[in-house]
TrEMBL record, chains A, B:
NCBIfam families: PRK05985.1. One of its GO terms (molecular function) is hydrolase activity, acting on carbon-nitrogen (but not peptide) bonds, in cyclic amidines. CDD domains: Bact_CD. This is Cytosine deaminase. PANTHER family: BLL3847 PROTEIN, CYTOSINE DEAMINASE. Residues 42-387 form the Amidohydrolase domain. InterPro entries: Amidohydro_3, Metal-dep_hydrolase_composite, Metal_Hydrolase, Metallo-hydrolase_Enzymes. Pfam families: Amidohydro_3.
Length: 400, 400
């Protein structure tokens, strides 16, 4: 592959210089770099950061680009789950097409890593996973995608789901998912034992949706922590949402965060606007590795969201009452490098030797870049330009 | 003034028809309308709604278009207030220029009514008000602007502020403002008596910032309700934020909302992402007239926000866990017609005889229009096109 030399960029907001990417990795950062035969790009003085990471999304759910979906419901989590499961086929929600639309826009907006859950249920079997695997293959040059086999309709409640999860992990799903072992599965011991058993069998990490609030969530989290230690899975377990760490009692939350950090459990947060969410600042101060995610975008659950991690970072930042530049810089790190680290991948930042994944962003400073609504001028994956001025620019990849 | 005939629009999402505006008011809505000599616009099948209303903002605060401001602080409300008051002059924050930038963008995004607070303090005297009055005059054809004389640094705490408020109201401020009579002014009786005395003297309505949480806020709110009844000011008093109505106790909040409705006190909410906010659905169900507002945009307080009421509506909708189409329609009404009504102005919606204020919006349905991020194709104020494709289009008005 040709070298890529991007001239006149500001790495992490520093003064303007060049960056050379060779064989997919950053070879040099400095002034007046030269590389014979390299593809040359002009960065026009824009700030460069590592690519963004959407560490919690559902590429199999969006209705983006389809006719407006008027059938959204209120009601319980179970109602929303049932509405979606029963709507997919009548709606014609083709997972490959829809996940392409969703993921391509994430790439256009500077995303280089995605962790996406995919529903595994006894109605749809593995068909949704198949659609998403096709998308991962189609976009392999643009984005690194981890797929979580996610028992959206319950693991214990619907017999046959465990076996489907087992098959999904054999087929190429990277991560064992789970959903509210207490409040949804109604059997925390059974549910968690099953999740960890699958992880052990397949040698794969775990990422459990935990919406459970307050003490119920804390109880389930304690059970997750205990199993993480017992099975030596430190660094391989993630908890998504983890609203219980947003409890208002600091005397309960502080020690819990310490336990999460000790077990090296990763937390994936979306900054849910209408829920109690764990403080990003406090989690980072406790040493927890945190990723941010856009979650579902305009799906049968809700109309909200944009396939853009800076949009999501703003939601997380507002939710966490971040104001100062240093807070916005922490936020941007969590939306990019920190999220990749939380996914269990190499994430050294923009330094020589690092993966050649970067995006240019609009703005005078890193803090400004978080809030400025503007297309990403250039997105680079492993030393190859994949998007330009907010549009996919990878040969053979077209928005469906 | 020439008549304006807009062809091929969908009023409130209905089937395509035409709308005729004559002498600043809607003269007819129907199919195949004709009007000799009228200016003709093609609506291209877009949905038309009444113009949006930003009922709570601070046009005198934004740093938009200035160099990135890195000096934001954490700390108490008092720290943020002091930081702003001490920064205005060193920063070169010219209120006329900045409020033009802010208000023109609101207009470009379909806003036809603005209620803006302006700081009145003993450091700046009436100079900030003067800048904003100039902006109101410059944009008189594009937007109706109510200016609230706002004692940002305290009414009781800084002697001389009352007299400045009195002058501001004589100079052209439309509304008497106030700020946390208990927690900031530390003298709820003195502060509220002063505010209501100014309102009585000038015959002007009231709009009080009430950030006070929980029981303290409820206490202050009860005092506001009592004075509203005692002075016969039903319909003329507004409370902005009113976080206390976001208390988690429905047995306390329900009856309080009923009292607010009985006194016809208007509530202006921004859906503050990191605060407990009153439920929009519950307030409307209780019969309270509610306006939404963008609040400060990228000012010395915080980096967040966009000068766009649909952007704000999305924040309010997510905060209130709105999902269904009927909820999004309620939200859109609060962001437009409902807000104008809460400001005390005529707001019948898009019907013959109504003021000729409308904006076209992108989207297949009203609900879709709330979430779709796209420029407003056409904005009309009193029968005159004021913005087109998201850009101001009013002769003589240029973005500074």
């Amino acid at each position: 592959m040709q070298d890529l030399l991007i001239r006149n960029i500001r790495p992490m907001g520093a003064e303007a210089q060049d960056i050379l990417i060779r064989a997919g990795r950053i070879a040099a950062i400095g002034k007046g770099l030269a590389a014979e035969g390299a593809t040359i790009e002009d960065g026009a003085g824009a700030i460069a950061i590592p690519t963004l990471a959407d560490t919690h999304t559902h590429l199999d759910k969006t209705t983006w680009g389809m006719p407006w979906y008027p059938g959204r419901k209120g009601g319980s989590l179970q109602d929303l789950i049932d509405n979606e499961r029963n709507s997919r086929i009548p709606l014609g929600l083709d997972v490959h097409r829809q996940s392409m639309r969703h993921a391509i826009q994430l790439v256009e907006n500077g995303t280089g890593h995605i962790r996406s859950h995919v529903d595994i249920d006894t109605d749809h079997g593995l068909s949704l996973l198949e659609g998403k695997l096709a998308t991962r293959t189609a976009l392999a040059d643009a984005v690194d995608m981890q797929i979580v086999a996610f028992p959206q309709s319950g693991l214990m409640k619907r017999p046959g789901t465990y076996e489907l999860m087992d098959e999904a992990l054999a087929m190429g799903a990277d991560v064992v998912g789970g959903l509210d072992p207490s409040s949804m599965d109604r059997d925390p011991k059974g549910s968690l034992d099953a999740i960890f058993r699958l992880a052990e069998k397949h040698g794969k990490p775990i990422d459990i949706h935990l919406h459970e609030y307050g003490e119920l969530g804390a109880f389930t989290l304690e059970e997750i922590i205990a199993r993480t230690h017992a099975l030596g899975m430190q660094g391989l377990v993630g908890v998504s949402h983890c609203f219980c760490l947003g409890m208002p009692d600091p005397l309960r939350v502080g020690p819990l965060m310490e336990e999460v950090a000790k077990a090296d459990i990763r937390i994936f947060t979306t900054g849910h606007p209408s829920a109690e969410v764990p403080s990003l600042q406090d989690m980072r101060a406790a040493g927890i590795k945190v990723g941010l995610g856009c979650d579902g975008i305009r799906d049968t659950w809700g109309p909200w969201g944009q396939p853009d991690m800076l949009h999501r970072a703003r939601i997380v930042g507002m939710k966490n009452r971040m104001r100062r530049d240093d807070e916005l810089e922490l936020l941007l790190d969590a939306a990019s490098r920190g999220g990749v680290e939380a996914m269990g991948l190499e994430a050294p930042g923009l330094v020589p030797g690092a993966p050649g994944d970067l995006t240019l962003v609009a703005g005078e400073t890193l803090a400004h870049a978080v809030v400025e609504e503007a297309p990403r001028p250039l997105v680079v994956k492993r030393g190859r330009v994949v998007a330009r001025a907010g549009r996919i620019a990878l040969p053979g990849v077209v928005m469906p």
